[in-house]
Hints:
- The protein is an alpha/beta fold and 259 residues long.
- The strands form two sheets. The protein has a seven-stranded parallel β-sheet with strand order 3-2-1-4-6-8-9, sandwiched between helices. A two-stranded antiparallel ribbon has the order 5-7.
- The mean pLDDT is 98.
- It binds nicotinamide-adenine-dinucleotide.
- The site of nicotinamide-adenine-dinucleotide has 28 residues, from helix 1, helix 4 and helix 6.
Amino acid sequence: MGGRLQNKRIMITGAAQGIGLAIAEACHREGASLLLLDRDGALLGTEAERLAAAGATLFHTAVDITDAAGIAQAVSDGAAAIGPINALVNNAGINVFSEPLAMDDAAWERCFDVNLKGAWTCCRTVLPGMIEAGGGAILNIASTHAFTIIPHTFPYPLAKHALLGMTKALGLEYAAKGVRVNALAPGYVATQKVIDYWNSFPDPDAAKAETLALHPGRRIASPEEIALAAVFMISDECPFMNATCLTVDGGLSVQQHPA
Ligand SMILES: NC(=O)c1ccc[n+]([C@@H]2O[C@H](COP(=O)([O-])OP(=O)(O)OC[C@H]3O[C@@H](n4cnc5c(N)ncnc54)[C@H](O)[C@@H]3O)[C@@H](O)[C@H]2O)c1
């Protein structure tokens, strides 16, 4: 086990699977203690037990990030179990994809409640403790959708653009208090969410092949590859990185079109 995150007590939302779970595993390997949250309590429990059996110091609880009182309780219970939270990974997020005029108000509200307000709720819950302690690190898992648009994915990219805006705003606001706030922008990552997306097409294999062909390296990222960048950004190895966004997309978003 490495020690790059020793003395970090990291709250991770959406930690039951995918990118959040990979970040939890990578942070444990680097010596962090973990507060793991997810709305899927059964899956979270299974994965948390597996991590604990592997030696992780952790507290886990089922909570939806749209439930502000639940988040406050989770942070309080988590701090009692592992110590005050000094790092937060806002990872929980959902795809809400539509043609703009086909979208109903409920979809708009669900998208922003989870992808933006939920992240803000977690920030506002842990920030006072970080400021009082003299510092901390917040990492918002954004997306290449935070600065590019794919038609018919409305309003998900709007929420991710706003998450990037919140990253900059909070990063500036609390820099003098020692709190760093950054964003990480993955492109396509091989998680259940992406498999579900492929399966939503009549020919899932063709949809997958089309996605891979978009990428300069003809493959998409593994969750573990995103976690490697997350560990760096939470760690003390980049103390002057603040209010910015690191793109981890294999070059996807800088090409004019696929070769
Ligand atoms: N997979 C990708 O290709 C990709 C690309 C770019 C950005 N992202 C972002 O990365 C993050 C994680 O994505 P993933 O692919 O690992 O997703 P995933 O669907 O595999 O896992 C997300 C987890 O978050 C939990 N969750 C969802 N809404 C929640 C809520 N309201 N409260 C608490 N928990 C909640 C789910 O139960 C699930 O366990 C998201 O913010 C997503 O937008 C993913």
